[in-house]
Task: structure prediction
Amino acid sequence: MFVLGVDPGLTRCGYGLVAAVAGNGFRAMAAGTLETAADAPVPARLAALAESIGALLEEYDPAVVVVERVFFQTNAKTATGVAQASGVALAAAAAHGCEVAQYTSNEVKLAVAGYGAATKRQVQAMVARQVGLADAAPPPDAADALALAVCHLVGAGLRAAVLMAETRS
Result:
């Protein structure tokens, strides 16, 4: 199963594609950052982001797209751009027919690092190990996106067991 994580941002939007491998492991298939010009009009930036995310969906055809749920942000201007980018990613995933999931950063930190208040550096290091990037940690936006995908895959077994139990009832 391929899971595409998206760390939304208007200027820098991280993405990370992770595959589940036998034995409960994970492997990074792709990771990077989609960037838009800060001086371009917001509608043009959102259109460029939608096009780039659409291209990722076409190229990799993930089963699930996971987008970070913005839980709290102190800077309203930043929060608006993140929310707009998040909406673009959610809409693109739904239009492509993908299952869509969202997690807060604390949920991701708990799943990846075992501690909901882990630092960015700790998450980067842990996710790099978990997806087989032993040489170096990926850039922060890409690491966050990979961590989102891993978070979803970590909980997949539990979600399947709950679904099975519900159907038996």
In short: Residues 27 and 88 are 26 Å apart (CA to CA). Residues 2-168 form a domain with the Nucleotidyltransferase; domain 5 fold (CATH 3.30.420.10). The chain has one domain: 2-168.
